[in-house]
Every structure is written in structure tokens, then in C-alpha cells.
Amino acid sequence: MLNKMMNETKVIRDNVHGNIIIKYQIIWDLINTDVFQRLRRVHQLGGTFMVFSSAEHSRFTHSLGVYSIVDRIINEVMTDNLNEYDGIVGLCAGLLHDIGHGPYSHAFEDVFKTDHEEMTRRIILEDTSVNQVLRSYDENLPLAIAQVINKEYHNKLLVQLISSQVDADRMDYLLRDATNAGVSYGLFDLERLLRSMVVVDNRIAFKESGVHVLEDYIFARYHMYWQVYLHQTTRSYEIILHKLLSRVKVLFAASYQFKDDIRFLKPFLNKTTLAIKDYLNLDESILFYYFRCFMDEEDPILKELARCFINRVLFKQIDLDNIQQGLKIMNYIEDNFEKRANYFDISQVKSSLYNYYGEINSQSIIILTKNKELKELYNVSNLVNAIVKSAEEKQEVKLYFHQRYQSLINEGS
Amino acid sequence: MLNKMMNETKVIRDNVHGNIIIKYQIIWDLINTDVFQRLRRVHQLGGTFMVFSSAEHSRFTHSLGVYSIVDRIINEVMTDNLNEYDGIVGLCAGLLHDIGHGPYSHAFEDVFKTDHEEMTRRIILEDTSVNQVLRSYDENLPLAIAQVINKEYHNKLLVQLISSQVDADRMDYLLRDATNAGVSYGLFDLERLLRSMVVVDNRIAFKESGVHVLEDYIFARYHMYWQVYLHQTTRSYEIILHKLLSRVKVLFAASYQFKDDIRFLKPFLNKTTLAIKDYLNLDESILFYYFRCFMDEEDPILKELARCFINRVLFKQIDLDNIQQGLKIMNYIEDNFEKRANYFDISQVKSSLYNYYGEINSQSIIILTKNKELKELYNVSNLVNAIVKSAEEKQEVKLYFHQRYQSLINEGS
Amino acid sequence: MLNKMMNETKVIRDNVHGNIIIKYQIIWDLINTDVFQRLRRVHQLGGTFMVFSSAEHSRFTHSLGVYSIVDRIINEVMTDNLNEYDGIVGLCAGLLHDIGHGPYSHAFEDVFKTDHEEMTRRIILEDTSVNQVLRSYDENLPLAIAQVINKEYHNKLLVQLISSQVDADRMDYLLRDATNAGVSYGLFDLERLLRSMVVVDNRIAFKESGVHVLEDYIFARYHMYWQVYLHQTTRSYEIILHKLLSRVKVLFAASYQFKDDIRFLKPFLNKTTLAIKDYLNLDESILFYYFRCFMDEEDPILKELARCFINRVLFKQIDLDNIQQGLKIMNYIEDNFEKRANYFDISQVKSSLYNYYGEINSQSIIILTKNKELKELYNVSNLVNAIVKSAEEKQEVKLYFHQRYQSLINEGS
Amino acid sequence: MLNKMMNETKVIRDNVHGNIIIKYQIIWDLINTDVFQRLRRVHQLGGTFMVFSSAEHSRFTHSLGVYSIVDRIINEVMTDNLNEYDGIVGLCAGLLHDIGHGPYSHAFEDVFKTDHEEMTRRIILEDTSVNQVLRSYDENLPLAIAQVINKEYHNKLLVQLISSQVDADRMDYLLRDATNAGVSYGLFDLERLLRSMVVVDNRIAFKESGVHVLEDYIFARYHMYWQVYLHQTTRSYEIILHKLLSRVKVLFAASYQFKDDIRFLKPFLNKTTLAIKDYLNLDESILFYYFRCFMDEEDPILKELARCFINRVLFKQIDLDNIQQGLKIMNYIEDNFEKRANYFDISQVKSSLYNYYGEINSQSIIILTKNKELKELYNVSNLVNAIVKSAEEKQEVKLYFHQRYQSLINEGS
Predict the structure, then answer these.
(1) Residue B322: pLDDT above 90?
(2) Which A positions 47-66 lie with beta carbon below 8 A of chain B?
(3) Is residue A71 pLDDT above 70, yes or no?
(4) With b meaning 16 or more CB within 10 Å and e meaning fewer, what string describes B32-49?
(5) Three-class SS state of B33
(6) Dihedral sign from CA coordinates of D331, D335, D336, D339
(7) Distance, in angstroms, between A311 CA and closest chain D CA?
């Protein structure tokens, strides 16, 4: 029953993959849950569309895209390696791997101590519409899918398919983010990558003839990180959001009386354990509504930060020599101008943020050489080796500050 | 001063045009107003992304795109035909032509009797951040721009550039909607279309050698209408929205006590004249917030319609023979089952909806023939003639209904 | 043995289809025959690259492309409708359907009375390397393939796959010619077309939901014909070629002594039956060599026509009212200025050349409607109906002439 | 008069650049010379289309493409840096930079000791149709253009435009070769590269914000070299050609009587100085004709090598440890089996072949940093630094041999 086919195959048009094909009823049922539909209201790249205007795509389309790539790999590469049950587990895991993401995950989680990975598991395992759909097909399905996403499933091939250096998730987001942002440097040859993928000893490997496609893929990731994901203006937007959410938290803790009822936000402010249904109420629309309300608040800091966020009054930035210099500045501001500290922040971007390449060592992309040996890509490709080393040396430290302190900064420098 | 250049040219990446270039300071200032930024929170195609998932783009990117095409036409086609003042007026008009759009304009305006064209004029002419920017450069600028958009400007070339059968607006939205939806049939050769454009007697015309590109453009529009814009499932989503907004209006008129304070929606429900600042408060996020709140309301109809809208529980549909049949059904339901009428609606799509081609006669696309004569495209191209006639005959009438009445419909048929 | 797989699947990169996959040994063997390799030396579009410079592709890549589309249709659409034998017959037929084409078929065949369709059959059935490969797998294979190409095979599904209104041949050449020429109007959505294709009663049909893709395909063909295939300058080039080949024939018949030994051309000039090996010796390189030699000939007409052809000294043209007018002019020239007739010609392009749409009636593209009825596209799509009627009315008659007679023409008009 | 405009601007469609615009009469006149038209009969990538089938494009379309990029750079980047005279010199130089290329330059020049760069100069400076066109506009034009191509022109900006690490030539061929071969890894963002290009101190430099585009460009070149230009099968084809041409030379020196008159090849075989008109007679068609004739020759080696070349009977290859090993093998074969040596060859590909990156040091790509300093790309980009070092270490040595010696090789290894 798990493999129940739809009466009529569904085809969803997609600006990245062309056609996304839905054959199994369970996939269609999952897509139609309120929990999955909620992903339409969460931007895939948070505030990046403030810089790359056309990168307005959601986690919804990305999730469909991951499903679609998993579907292709299962049918084109792993036909002899996966049974139908595991195949469907893989499709569901691909579709649901980001189901726990909330609005602007990065800043939000940092302030409210939520964790989208934990939420993904809870959504799959606790009482939600997603869980109901899964159990209606097979009682053990939620656990299996959660294990795949959690990298604990007994069939490691499925785990790699969803979470590894070259997994369906990364493949889709690179292509999707680059396509929507309108930047060609993030594109790579998906067709060729899939054609060079093989299964050896129940592991994903790549034929040596495909090494140049992997090099191109690594290169695309390198550029997407430094040009798009870590773009200085995106970070400015996220810093404002962080400051804004922090201010809400501080005020709430101080029993500040908000003019509007912020009822969907309160569960995150209270110390009690968060119910999954409360978590699922939140999306970017809800959050945005409250930010709009904050523009009418009494507290001048909350009011100003909300204005900056909504009307794109971005913080400015200057380069710093190192993180120590940054911390010294922040300490000075916090010690001497407590309120001003709401308008300053330090952002450090370095290889640690960029540990994707570091992972090559620990997790390894495997090459099946012409002589049928297995080697790490790192040891086969001088180029990848070079890119990784080059990436490790790169870092950036910046001080961000509200525009009103521009003259202050000019004096200080 | 109107032509003040930016210190550094700004380049915005775009998934349709590649690079959008901002040279004038006034354009950058307009983009950075809260009023223009608000367009980021209004989908270009309303609820179409419920069917074409990846069509998630906003009126913000479309407005930039129109600006960009106007910029190209001014520099590549009209160099000798426009002075710098009119050129900048044209750029501003292109950028601002949709500034009055609110969330889900179609259904919203029908229920609340607002008009985005009127709002566009008011935003430009009344006291808003957009108006302030314009006046800071030139006191007469707001009026000039409003006149262009309103088709009353003395220089008709500018009017045609923004509003005609083959204007910058349509060029951008066809390309943008097709690109984002992932459907190739909406694409046409923009480069070639611009190359064939000429100015004759202060009118836009097209060289005869470009007729095939115009045919392709007309064909693209034909397909986008029937495949995307009028897609039966998009209409389902809009009907639910229409029913939902109507229910809010009915309840408010009946002094229903809403649990949540719907303060940004009230100005639209009160009979008084709408202030422009109240209009600008509304966007899809705000509207969505209230819909989410309605899911917790007492009124079962409001509650259910909100649920349908948010969780994509779409109305089903069947074909009807003609509009009379539809009206008879609706009358019957309204007479006998007052409440059920909230869950039924008729949708007629015919050539009148599709009056773009009708306009060819009245407004005319002009061809400059090899012999230097001016003729209507309609009279030059048998193909366009044929497409237009074919389009006029096409129509569709459908009855939409809540899924719970499926069996009722089955019986009835 | 017919289905012998290759040790390692071959992948040929292609600028139209991305990857062309070769799995069967027989296909690889056929590609590697001298007869098939010869297609690399025959341009797909004859002299069209004299106008659309980048349309330099050969019949070799087109043939691979047809094979590739046949492969996809067999695997994606006809899995349950073809047995493996017929599948391989189809692949071979797709690959070999143009194997009999010679250099500049149109003009060449008209002058030398050869027929590429007959040659295709002979190459497959007589003693050639292609025939040897086929027989080495199965004695009956040559006949089966020849029958498919000749529309006589017992399994009509295969026949339709290779030769019908919407066959693999047309699909590839439209996409390939448009891609290489750099004209977007010839493109259509191949993915969607294949997805809407079904087999009903052992016939190819298309789902009603795919009608708009077929409309787009018909539209693409319409434009490719009038903009590319029948381009006035391409016709000029072909007319020169026709005049040149005719002159060779006249001189040879008159026992003219050619300075160079034209040994590979002689079999075509002699009255005896053409041996298949003599036919296969000819390609564009060989022909071109002789044309170059003719530039050094005594006969001034031969010399001049060769110069025009090689150095692209194209004939000019003027529009005529109708074919009668053209014939009158030609008769006058032939009667009064015998030699000048070598530098004049009439070209008529009308619906009869454009009988592809006429074929819709006789051969019919079939639509499987939502109600599971079978109807002709012509009767389902108003648009196709309109395009076909529009096409039937269109015609062009032109007089082509050597540039040296420009002033004569000017006087005459 | 040099800047005489055409009556009507010509637009040539192109599968890489879309539209190529011809405004000056002199450019159109040059394109229409027999000398320039001859480039249609020389493949841009020699025998690469034997591996990448769809890479069938000619030096003709590449030359138009270079012209087109030069045109854009002059108009978009160098408006204030070049006067009209130098602008037109640059356009002509871009168009003519490859005019001296003959068929399969690499192997041909090695055997016959011709040099396409010298031929380019001679074609421009000696009595040819190209020279006539140039002189008809300006007596000094041929010398100016030859100097630009020869890197001796007084205005070094023009020299860089045509010949430098990031010149119009390389930009076009990377894009064109990748597009036609159907490999995405050779593509880079031309728009962005041109936008980041500036002129500083009469030198081409690139803004620091464009460094990532340059990285992508270098990366594309790296991949095109190793995947396409140096592809092992392409080299096999070129080795056969080299052997074949060498055999012709040996036989001619030994007064061998060729059955066919190889009149257009003789000037290359005779010891006398080559006349430019004899050089221009040769193209791939002519050469191919003689190769076809050689298939009917008595000499078994000539006959066999011609067959291998024409029917794509490629030499096989095995990897060697180093060049010394290869030379030892070749010496052994030459000493012991003189005739067999015609069927064996060594191919070494290393960083020296790949000296483009080495040039970075000597010729330098210059970055204009945010602080308005000029630095070498090599010192700004860790990534480029890493790629170059990685490239330097890479090399390949292979032994190629006729298939008939496969068993011999198997024994030997």
C-alpha cells in the first residue's frame, strides 16, 4: 500500500528541473498537508532577496526539487541497490528533509534557541498532519524517515543520498539558488554528475571520468558561498533581524506591554517547552506582521529596528583586521553606550563557516578510478585540493552599524 | 539635478534580464522607499504559485524589469526621439507603473472596491515617500509621471512605451512569468523585438522584417493566458479568496466581533474614504496573518474558508455549457441554501477577459513596411489575424465548489 | 545477439540533447562505418549557413539526434508497445533514415536525377558497410529497416515514429536547426511533447492536455520554413548551384574537355546506372574541390558560376506578381539571350512547398481527448486550424539574377 | 571614408552572441572577400568534432564572434579611450586575426613548416582581396592592422584587446567551443566580465568586484583544455593526420608518382617560397579530396593512413610514465621496424602546452582594487594562484598506435 500509485501521474512545472513527476500517492498526500504547504511562506535564502532581488524562491520549491533529484538517482543510478520500500523512504526523506525550517532560521534559532533539525524530527514523529499521512501508509515509516534524515538509518546509501558532500539537497539548492539569483557561477552539469554516479560497496562513488564535473560543482559551491550566501548586505539584513528579535526577547523578559497581541510569537518567548503546533504556526508572514506592528510601538529601539528591517534601511559596514579588534569595539560600546549596542554588531566569516570543504576529509567524496580503486576526491584532483586550501585561508571580519553612526565611525577610523 | 548620476552605477542581478543597471540617483532613491519595498510582499501572479510552484516572484522584481526594458528602449531605439527629461520621466513611470497594486488585486478589488490604477496615481501625487523623492528632484515630476501612466501625457511616445499592445510592461511580465513558471511557451525573442522597433511620426512602430517576432510574441501571450493566467486551479484559489474576503465584509457589516484585532484591514471595511497610508499598510503578509487568525474564529464559514485558503484545500470544478446555466445553478443555491452559497461560484473565461487581442483593432500595432508605409499588424500578418479570430471564439464556463459537495454534484449531473 | 550491449555505455555530447547514449553494440558499429561517417561531410541545411552563419551542423549530428529521440520515445512512451526486436529496428531506422543524402540534395537531385530516398534503401539493402553490419547481427534486419523508412513495415507504430507529422526526425531537425542558427522561434518544449505522447490502438496520439505544445510545435515549423528554410538568400545560393551543376552537365554532354580529372563526378554524368559505391564517394568536399577547379576552366559560364558559388557572389532578386510573369521573363531571356539564361532563374515558394500542413488532413495528428475520444488536432485546435489556413494563402515568386544584370533589371521594371 | 556606414545595418544571427551587428561598410566588404569566406571551410577546432560531434563550427563564425566582442568592448568599455580610427582598426584586427589559418593548422604547420601568424600578416600586407579592401579605405590600414595583430601597434590598448590573457579572441572561442561542443564547463559570464573591465593608464584592467568572474573564466579555460582541446581521441585523429601528411612529404621527396594530380598541394611540397595565392587555395575540402584520392594509391602506408583518417579508424593509446619512456619506445620501433613507425607516435601534454597560465606572470591580468591600486590577479586571488600551481603539476604522456598493433602492445606491457 506504501507504493500506491496515483490515478494520474502529477507533473509540477519547475523553473530548475522542468518537470517534477509525482507517481506515488503518498508523496502527493504529503505535499498537500498544511505542514508542507507552510514551506511556501519561508524563503529558501532568508533575506538574500534583499540583495539578489529575484532570489524569491521558497523552501517549498526547494523541497520539491530535492525530491525530484532523489527520484532520478533512485531510478537512474540505484535501480539495483534499493528495494521499493527504501526507495519510497528516500523520496519521503528528500521531500521532508527541511520540513522543520522556520522563518529566517539562522538568526531566529540563535535568539530563540530552536533547532530546525530537531523540529524536522518532531514534525515527522509527533502528532502532525505529516505524521498522520505517513502512518496511514505504514506505522514504521515516520521512524525510518527520521532516521534517514538523522543519519542513523541502517541503509547508509539512503543516508548519503540525503546528507553528504554531494547529496540531492546540495545539488538542488546550488542550481536553484543560482538560477533564481541570476548568477551563472553556481550552475554545474547535473546530468553529467548523475551519469558519473555509481554505487560501490553500498556507498555513493563517482567514476574518474566525472572528476571534472565534481571540480565544477565544488567551484560552484565556493562561489555561491562567497558571492551570495555570505554577501555583506545579506549579513546586514540578518544582523538587523537578530538585533530586532533580541530586543523583543529583552522587552518581553522585562514584562514590557506590547500594544498588539503577539500571540503566535509568545510560545517562543515563554520558558516552557515548545509545542510542535505552536512552532508550526510561525512563518515569515506571521513574523512580518508583528514587525509591522512594532513600528507603532513605544520602545524606540524596537520601533527603529523594525523600521530598518521592513523598509530595508540596512546597517553599514567596515572591514576589521581580526575578530579581536571587533570584540574590543563591541565591549567598548556595550560598556559605555548600552543602548547603542543594539545598533552595532560584528560578523566574522571564515573557513569554519565554510566547513563544507573541511568535511571532504572527514566524510569524503569517493572516486572509483579507472583501475577500480576507491580514492578520495581530495587525493585525485589537484584542483579540489587547491581550492580547499585556498578556501581555508580566506576570512572576513566586519563591523556593522546603523547608518546614524556613520560619522562616529569615520572619526574613529 | 533630475539627471544626477550615482557615485557608482548599481547593478542588480536578475534571473530574467541578467543585469539591471541603475545610473540615476532618483531611480535608486525611489527603489529604496518603503512604498516601493512593499512590492516585495505582493506576488506578481497572485495565487498562481499554488499551481506553478516556482512562479513565486513579486511585483518588485517585475517593476525593476519594466524599468530595465524602458531603459533599453530609450537608449537603443529612442535616442533621437526623447529629451533627457522625458527619458527620466519614462524610467520613473516604468518603475512605478504597478506601485498601486495590493495583495491579490483581482479578488481584493472586486470585494473592497479599491482600484490599483487609482492608487498608483494617489501614491505618486499624494503625500508618500515616493512623492517626496520625486518632488525633491522636480516639483512637476509627480504629475508628469502620473500622466504618463494615466495615458494623458503630452508626449504620446512615452505613453506607448508604458501602455500599449507591445509595451515594456507586457514584455517583462511575459518573459518573467514564463521564466519563473518554467514554461517555455511564454518566451519570445526580446533582443529581436527591440531591434525591429522604430519611431515613426512620434509613434512606436516595427519594421516589417520583425513581423515574425511579433507573431511569436502574440502567440506567447495567447499561451500564457490560457495555460497560466487563466489556469483552472489558479481560479479555484482566487474564488476561495473572493469568498473569504466577502465573508469578512458580511460579518463586519453585521457587527461580528472578531477575536483578533484586524486593525490594518478595518480601513477597508469602513465606509469612509481610504487614506493612502492605510492602503499602503496592506500587503500579502498582513492579509495572510488575518487569514491565519480567522482559522481560530467562531463563524464556521469564515473558519473553513480561511482553512481552505491557507492549507490549499482547493475548490473542485466542472465544465458548464454556458454562463446562463451557471447563473441558474447559483440562483438555485442562493435561494435554497444560503450558507452553501459561500462554497460555490461560477467562473467564466472568454474573449472579453482576453481583450488584449481585441485592442489590436482599436489601438493597433503598427508595421513599417519595406515600402515605408504604415499598416496595422492585423492587416500585414495572416497569422495574427488568424490567432485573434481563433481566440475570440474560445471561452470556458466552470462551476467551482467545495470538495464536500462533490457527491451532491455527482448526483446533480 | 541483436541486443548485444556495449562493454561500456558510450555517451556523445551534443549541443541540442546534452548527452546521446549508446547502449547497443550494433548502433556503435553502424556509427563507425565509413558510410555513416560520410554524413559529417554533408551540411544538414545545405547552403543555409551562407545566411545563418552558425548553422554549420551536419547530417551526422542530426542523425544521432533522431536516434536519440527515438531512444527516448521507445523507453519513455512505448515501453509496453514494442518488443525488443522492433525497438532496435526503430533505433537503427532513426539513425539511418537520412543515410542516402548527398551534398546539397535539393539542387543536385534535380539536375542529376538521383533520389536520396532510393539511395537510403540501396545503402541499407545492397553491399555496403552499413548492410554488412546489419547482416552480421540479423539477416532480416536490412529489409526490416528499409521497410520502416519506406513506410511499409508491418508495425505501423515504428513507421509513425520515423515518418509522420510529429516524428523523431522533425523533432530533432527543428530543435537542431533553430539552436544552431541562433533563432529561438524554432524551439518547442520537447520534454512536454514527449510527456503528452501516448499509444492508442497501436498509433501515436497526444493527450489533450498537450495540445498547446503541439500548437507551439506547428508554430515553430511555420516560422522555420518562412524565416530559415525558404530564406531568399539561401535560395539564391541554391540557384547558383543549380545553374552550375546544369552547366557541368551541358558541357559534359557536349564532350567538353575538363582540365582536371573529375573522376568522382563522372558516374553521375554518364548515362549508366549509378553504382552505390560511386554514389557514396560524393560529399560536399569532393564537390567543392571540382568547383574550385572549375574556376580555372576555359568555359566562361562555368568559371563564373563556380566563382559565384565559392566566393559567395550571390544572385540578386526581385519580387514578381506570380509564376506566369516569371515564366514569361525566363522564356524571353532563353529565346533571345541563350547564354544569359545561365544567370537568371525563377523561384516560387508557396503552400505546395509547404505541404506539411496539408498533410495534417491526410495523415492526421491524433488527439486523445479527456473523454477518451480520438480526434484530429485540426479539429481540436482552432489555432492550428487558423495557422494552416493562413499558411495556405502565403506564397512568394521571385526572379533571381546575376548582379551584373542589375541595371538591366532596373530598366525593365 | 574609413567610417563609411552601411545603407542598412546588417544583423547576422549567431548561436553564441544572438545578433552580430555590422555597421561599417568596410567590415561588410572584408567579410565578403573570397579570402574571408574561405574560413567557412576550416573547422575552428580541427578534428575535435570527431569526438565532440556537434563542435562543427568554423573559423568563420569564430572570427565574426571576435569582431562582435571587440565591437562591444569598444562601445561599452573604451568609449573614452579610443578614437574612431583606432576603433575601426580594432574591429578589422578582431575580424582578421585568424585569417591566416589553414586546414588543421597544428599538424599541417608542423609538417610543412608554414606559420599561420606569418600568413595572417602576409594576407593583410600582400596583394590579396583583403588587402585591396583595406587599401581602398586607407593606404595605411593594412600596416596598422598587421601591427595590432603582431603586438607592435603604438596603441597598446588595441594590442591587449586582441592578444592578451583575457582578450576578445579567447572570450569568443571559450564560449563558442563550449556552446557547440555541448559542455557547460567552458561557459563563463561574458556580460559580467565586460562590466568589470576598465581602462587604467591605457591598459585593460578589471575591477576587484569582478575577480570571481575572472576566476570562473580561468576555471573554464582549465577545463576546456583538459576535457576538450587535449582530449585523447582528438589527439589520436591529429596524430593520424600528422603521419599522413608526413608520408606524403616523404613520398614526394622520393619522386613517387601520385595517381591524381595534387596540384593545390604541390606548392607546399616544393622547396620554393610559398606564394600567398597558393596558400589561400588550400582548405579542408581540398585537403580532404586528396586524402580520398590517396585511398586509391599504391603505397600501402599512404593508403592505410588515408583510410584511417577519412573513416575514423582511430589510433589506440596507452599511458606512459614519462616522455623518456616514450622516446625509447619510438627509437626502438624506428630502428627495428622502419615502416611500422608510421603507425606509432608519442603525445606529451603538459604545462608547457598549457602555457596560458604561465603567461599570467609575464603578461599579467590586472586588478583595480577597491583602494585604486593595481595588482596582478595572481596576487589577488588565492584561487587563481591555486589553479595555476595545480595546472603546472599536471601532465600526460601517451603512446598512440594503429589498432592492428594492439596485441603487440598487450604483450609488451
Answers:
(1) no
(2) 49, 52-58, 60-61, 64
(3) yes
(4) ebbbbbbbbbbbbbbbbb
(5) coil
(6) positive
(7) 26
- Rounded to whole angstroms, how far apart are CA atoms D273 and B312? 82
Residue D286 Cα distances to A228, A362, B370, D105, D132, angstroms: 53, 59, 42, 14, 25
Residue D392 has pLDDT above 80, yes or no: no
- Compute the mean pLDDT over every residue in chain C, rounded to the nearest whole number: 92
Contact A214, A381 (CB under 8 A): yes
C93, pLDDT greater than 70: yes
Q: Which of residues 264-293 of C touch A (CB under 8 A)?
A: none
| Residue D241, phi then psi, degrees to nearest 5 | -60, -45
Gap between the Cα atoms of D329 and A227, Å rounded = 51
Confidence at B354, pLDDT banded by 50, 70, 90:
very low
Supply the pTM of this predicted model.
0.94
Residue B298: Cβ-neighbour burial (10 angstroms; 0-12, 13-18, 19+): exposed
Residue C144, SS3? helix
Residues of C in contact with B219 (CB under 8 A): 216, 219
- Separation of CA C153 from chain center: 22
CB C410 within 8 A of CB C404: no
Which is nearest to B316 in space by CA: B374, B235, B400? B400
Are A188 and D187 inside 8 Å of each other by CB?
A: no
B195 CA to chain D: closest CA distance, Å?
10
CA distance B185 to B219: 8
Does the ipTM exceed 0.90? yes
**How far is residue B309's CA from residue B237's CA, in Å, rounded to a whole number?**
7
Residue B357 has pLDDT above 80, yes or no: no
Phi/psi for B152 (5° steps) reads -115, 0
Alpha helix stretches (DSSP H) within D126-210 = 129-137, 141-149, 156-162, 168-181, 190-196
CB D90 within 8 A of CB D70: yes
D116 contacts: CB under 8 Å, gap ≥ 6: D98, D100, D101, D102, D105, D109
Contact: C222, B383; criterion CB under 8 Å: yes
Residue with cell 603582431: D150
Place of cell 518573459: B175
pLDDT at D385 over 90: no
| Bridge partners for D317 per DSSP | D400
pLDDT in tens, A316-338: 999 998 888 888 888 888 888 87
How confident is the model over D280-292, as a mean pLDDT? 97
Whether residue D195 lies within 8 A of chain B, CB to CB, comes out as: yes
Interchain contact B211–C (C-beta under 8 A): no
Q: At what angle do helices A382-393 and A211-223 cross, to 10 degrees?
A: 10
Cell digits for A132? 498522520
| Mean pLDDT, chain B, integer | 92
Does the pLDDT at position C78 exceed 90? yes
| Among the partner residues B12, B56, B181, nearest to A56 by beta-carbon distance | B56
A361 C-beta neighbours (distance < 10 Å), count: 10
Identify the DSSP state of A58.
Answer: B
With contacts defined as CB-CB under 8 Å, which chain B residues touch C382? 390, 393-394
Residue C29 has φ and ψ, to the nearest 5°, of: -65, -40
* Domains by residue range for chain D, with CATH: 5-200 (1.10.3210.10)
Q: Go through D40-76 and write b for each residue having 16 or more CB atoms within 10 A of its CB, e for each that does not.
A: bbbbbbbbbbbbbbbbbbbbbbbbbbbbbbbbbbbee
- What would you report as the CA-atom Rg of chain C, rounded to the nearest whole angstrom? 23
Measure CA of the first residue to CA of the last residue in chain C; give whole Å.
Answer: 69
B359 pLDDT more than 70:
no
What's the gap between Cα C365 and its chain centre?
21
